[in-house]
Structures are given as structure tokens and as C-alpha cells.
Amino acid sequence: MGGSQENGPLFRPNRVLLAILKGMAPAHEPFPTEFVPVLFLRELKAAARSGEFPLAETLLGDYKARFGRDDFYAESLSWVARTAAPKGFAAEARFYAQSAYTLASELLDAEIVPADAPLALALSAAIEVESQRLLFEEGANAATAYLEGQLALFEAQPFRIRIRKNLHLVALAGQKAPALDWTPLPGSAPGDPTLLDRPCLLFFWAHWCSDARAQARTVARLRKAFEGALSVVAPTRLFGYTTKGNFVEGAEELEHLQEMRQVDYPDLAACPIPFGAENFDRYGASTIPTLVGIRPGGTVGFFHAGVLKEDALEERLRSLV
After folding, report:
1. Is the pLDDT assigned to residue 31 strictly greater than 80?
2. Within a domain: residue 181?
3. Which H or E run contains 115?
4. Where residue 233 sits, what CATH number does that domain have?
């Protein structure tokens, strides 16, 4: 890769990690010889974050020599891109994003993979990095056209939700709000499409998400502060687990969701809770929480992926009423 490394930081290899990758432990530092993905990604991201791309290349090269250019290697390339981009290493981020995209596309072929599979993570991250580059360098029209093309290309893949999130971040404001499936969570307040014709906040949440629990309290305070001038609609869905890694069947998760709603989300009791994955897909709500402000007439005022502090959310809500 060409670029801007002449004046970069010196190469400082992590001897413990390199020994793990090579299948042996340093004589003076006993360590398990099996490959540890979490440790590898931690070191790889640290190298990208600090601009130590020679170290990143060494880590990637040792992995490739041991395991080949497999799915996890493609994901690892995307992590370098994703980590480097916000630190200002634009050329390196673009290089690794393109590398991840090319390899992951080859490995994916026509296979449909889960949204959390390495190839899905690699492609969605690479697309995100490239779309952000286009937005910064060429503007919203270029980024929108690129994301629409990628969404069409990967429409059958579950990770399309992440592509749609990035598209909505660029282009949803000012557009007609996507329709909701108003099928309610059992026991929740009913809702209907007319709620989207007046000032409304959509709050996408998950029973397992601590950020969503904290955001729900903020949403409840602001709902009271606006004294009926603002409706809150709180879509949710099943995710296949009660906590990360604890996979369960639908009936068991629904029971757990209802328990968590009573304990952690009591302020949503009066809010309609549309229930189902389709709403998350339409709104690109791959990040929890996702917040969408709807203006009178049903156009989108803002789309935000992640937590918003109370003062920032209040300011955005005031723009709707």
C-alpha cells in the first residue's frame, strides 16, 4: 500500500501476540498457544488507532500465513479501516476498506450469511467507511448513490439493515417517514399511522441494551416536558437471545422481554410499541437505540443511531413541534 507512512510512528511489535499467532509462547512469558480472536482484534485496532500500520500489516501477515485469507481475515481488514477512519488516516482507511470489500465479496459469492457473520461484518463496515469518505469528499449525493447501489446489490442479505442505516443517516431527513407495521407488542398500548402525521419520536429499543434503558428514561422525561405536543412510539423486536450469547426460543424471549419492559421500561407503558423485525429493517435500526424525529405532515426531521444526551435530544425535538 502506498501512502503517508514516511513520518509515521516506529514499528513496535507486540511479541506476546506475535508468538501466539505463530503458535508458540515466548520463553519468558507463558501464554496459551491457541489463537485468541478477541486479543488479536484488540491489538490490531490499537495499531490502527495509533497509526502503526507496519504493526497492523505484521499482525495480518502472520494471521494469513497461519490461517489463510479466510472470513475472519476479511473482517480483520475491515476493522483496520473502521478504526483508522475516525483518526484521520483517510488513505489507509480507504485501502483497507477496499481490501476488505474485495475479499469478502469473493468469499461470500452467492451465500446468504447471518448479519453477525464475519463476512457480513466485513462488508457492512467497508461500505460504511467508503460512504463516509464519499460524503466528506464528494457530498451527500455521491454517498447516497453509492449506498443505494450497495443496498440493491445486497438486498437479500440480513446485513442490509446496516447499509440502510448509513443511507438513512445521509438521506432520510426531509423524506416521508417509512411506514410502520403497527402490530403491537402483546399488552402494549395500540397505535396507528396517524401518529406519524404530527410531531412524533420513534424510539427503537431492545430489552437487553443498557444504552436503550438509559435513553428510555431521557425519552420519558422529555415526553412529559412537551406536555402532549409530542407522541412517542417505541418499536421493539425479538433478537433470538435474552442476553448476548444466551440464545433462546421465541416464546422464552418474549416472556423475558415482557419482564424487562415492566422492570426497566415502565415509562413506555402508555406508548404504542409496534412489534416485529420489519420495522427495524425499514428504518435501518441496526444500532440500539435508534431515534427518529417525525415532523407534522409525516416527514423525517432527524435520524440518529445511538444514544443522545438529554439536551441534544430536547433541541432536536423542539425543531419538530
Report:
1. no
2. no
3. none
4. 3.40.30.10
CA distance 33 to 39: 12
Q: Model confidence over 169-180: pLDDT tens digits?
A: 999 999 999 999
Domain that holds residue 35: 15-171
Work out the pLDDT band at 21, boundaries 50, 70, 90: low
CB 303 within 8 A of CB 168: yes
Specify the CATH number for the domain of residue 61.
1.25.40
Task: Please tell me whether residues 149 and 27 are part of one structural domain.
Answer: yes
- Which of the two residues, 12 and 195, has the higher pLDDT score? 195
Which residue type is seen at 128? E
135 close to 171: Cβ distance less than 8 angstroms: no
As a whole number of angstroms, the distance between CA 230 and CA 200 comes to: 5
| 268 and 228 part of one domain | yes
Phi, psi of 298 (to 5 degrees): 90, 15
Q: Which residues of 163-200 are buried (b: 16+ CB within 10 A; e: fewer)?
A: bbbbbbbbbbeeeebbebebeebeebeebeeebbebbb
Q: Measured in Å, how far apart are the chain's first and last C-alpha atoms?
A: 51
Residue 49 inside a domain? The answer is yes
Q: Which residue type is seen at 290?
A: T
